[in-house]
Specification:
Elements lengths: L5 E6 L3 H16 L3 E2 L8 E6 L4 H20 L4 E6 L5 H10 L5 E2 L8 H10 L4 E2 L20 E5 L1 E2 L10 H5 L3 E2 L2 H13 L4 E5 L16 H8 L7 E5 L8 H9 L6 E3 L7 H7 L5 H14 L4 E8 L6 H14 L3 E6 L17 H23 L6 E9 L6 E5 L5 E5 L10 E9 L4 E8 L12
Parallel strand pairs: 1-2, 1-3, 3-4, 4-5, 5-6, 7-10, 10-11, 12-13, 13-14, 17-19
Antiparallel strand pairs: 8-9, 15-16, 15-18, 16-17, 18-19
Helix pairs in contact: 7-8, 11-12
This protein binds S-adenosyl-L-homocysteine, iron/sulfur cluster and FE3-S4 cluster.
Length: about 450
């Protein structure tokens, strides 16, 4: 095939965007375009953007501003803006009307059609503006997996939840599950190709199957994937606390490969705020859920997302959040300042909280959580943990880095020059910190002898 132009992809946002970029890269490479990691060499630059908070949009718009200057000296440069930001009506209008140097405007529901859009832009010198209204499941797609050890797989697109602060249902559209056998086939092939860990992606994986015929749900999908030989670990992102079922907890308890890690975004510990957020659960229900998980799977880790400064959040509401953090004692929490998103109900609510108050609350929340995270990690000192090695540590390149099944990062020194990428290793933890564990290598499992955990 004749070599086509060089392209690069700039990505921000969640794992879903990361994976969409892996797919776009593979699709363009299949079409003959040449990948480059250096934007200066690229003749085509694709931005895969995020809209979840204003900061994410500012980052993308800043990058776009630089590209505008570059294009003044390089008029043939093709710029495509995809991802969630280009589907946020406010920014979309700016991109369509004002940012006329952008050649292609598409979004997370049509990313798999990028080769077609590019052809239109390059051959017919036409500006392509995609109007994404519905979502069709695009079927099996190729992907350039960034890691040689773990691979992501979409299981459900879109979101039907409409949490009152969130833009995602507007940018990614309604829920659409992929057929179970199609996911099975994809995961089976990835495992056969040597990927040991699979990350199943969806905004709410617990909704999986609701729109499919038959008795299919997320727990049944996990049970089916657990049977795949050659696979060591299965993870998923994100499960909504409202519909994390007993069947799901039982399935995970009985599975060998599904990791004992629950990411359950709490968002707020105040029932009043949870109601305003349209989250569909109370703090009591959330506490009941985490208790059930810990009774059934005592070694499980539980992590969360919290938003501070939602409209109307009083000091008392915020105290309820701090109180929940102390009661649940999460292994880790991602904490965010509430960011008004135009078009969502919360942006119009009364009692918007000032930036100063939000920042001050965030600092208190982070202080508390950092302390809890450290306290949760300390008992791991002098224990042996099982780690899937992902590669060299980014911060300490002389060391290796991997994760426990509970998703804790472990950094350790190797032996000789042995490449440990993709190896399952036993590590004795010497030092537990808030952000990672450090330890020493005790044993590297031979692949043919390695048997994932069984629990009854
Ligand atoms: N589908 C996932 C969340 C995806 S967005 C879920 O429901 O759990 C990831 C996180 O970003 C959310 O959990 C929330 O904590 C945060 N977030 C979403 N919208 C936000 C906003 N407008 N301002 C601040 N944080 C937000
Ligand atoms: Fe947003 Fe809520 Fe959907 Fe998560 S579940 S993507 S927070 S609307
Ligand atoms: Fe951002 Fe869209 Fe993901 S808004 S967080 S890239 S779903």
């Amino acid at each position: 095939m004749e070599a086509k132009a060089q392209f690069t992809i700039w990505t921000s946002g969640c794992q879903m965007n990361d994976h969409d970029s892996e797919i776009m890269r593979a699709l363009l490479e299949e079409d003959g375009y040449q990948w480059t990691s250096n934007p200066d060499n690229a003749e085509i630059i694709i931005l895969n953007t995020c809209s979840v908070r204003k900061g994410a949009e500012q980052k993308a718009l800043g990058f776009l501003g630089n590209l505008k200057h570059q294009k003044a000296n390089k008029p043939d440069l093709v710029i495509a803006v995809g991802g969630c930001m280009s589907q946020n009506p406010e920014v979309r209008e700016f991109l369509v009307k004002k940012a006329t140097f952008v050649n292609i405007i598409f979004g997370p529901r049509s990313y798999h059609q990028l080769p077609k859009f590019l052809q239109e832009a390059l051959e017919h010198k036409r500006r392509v503006i995609v109007d994404e209204t519905s979502i069709e499941s695009p079927g099996l797609l190729p992907a350039h997996h960034t890691s040689p050890v773990k691979a992501s797989v979409n299981i459900i697109y879109g979101c039907n939840n409409f949490c009152s602060y969130c833009i995602v249902p507007y940018t990614r559209g309604r829920e659409k599950s992929r057929p179970l056998e199609e996911i099975y086939k994809e995961v089976y092939q990835l495992a056969a190709d040597g990927y040991q860990e699979i990350l199943l992606l969806g905004q709410n994986v617990n909704s999986y199957g609701k729109d499919l015929p038959g008795e299919i749900n997320f727990a049944k999908l996990l049970a089916r994937l657990d049977e795949i030989p050659d696979l060591s670990r299965i993870r998923y992102m994100t499960s909504h606390p409202r519909d994390a079922s007993d069947e799901l907890i039982e399935t995970i308890a009985a599975s060998r490969k599904v990791c004992e890690h629950f990411h359950l975004p709490l968002q707020s510990g105040s029932n009043r705020i949870l109601e305003l957020m349209n989250r569909g659960y109370t703090r009591e229900k959330f506490l009941g859920l985490t208790k059930k998980i810990r009774e059934r799977i005592p070694e499980a880790s539980i992590t969360t997302d919290v938003i501070v400064g939602f409209p109307g959040e009083t000091e008392e509401d915020f105290h309820d959040t701090l109180d929940m953090m102390e009661q649940v004692r999460f292994d880790a929490a991602y904490t965010f300042l509430y960011s008004p998103r135009q078009g969502t109900p919360a942006a119009k609510m009364e009692g918007q909280v000032s930036r100063e108050v939000k920042k001050e609350r965030l600092a208190r929340l982070m202080d508390l959580q950092n302390q809890i995270t450290l306290e949760k990690n300390l008992p791991l000192e002098n224990q042996v943990v099982e780690v899937l090695v992902e590669g060299r540590s980014k911060r300490a390149p002389e060391c290796w880095s991997g994760r426990t099944r509970t998703n804790k990062i472990v950094v350790f020194e190797g032996i000789d020059d042995q490449d440990l990428t993709g190896k399952m290793a036993d590590i004795l933890v010497n030092c537990a910190r808030t952000w990672n564990l450090t330890g020493s290598l005790k044993k590297v499992h031979k692949k043919e002898e390695y048997v994932p955990l069984t629990r009854n």
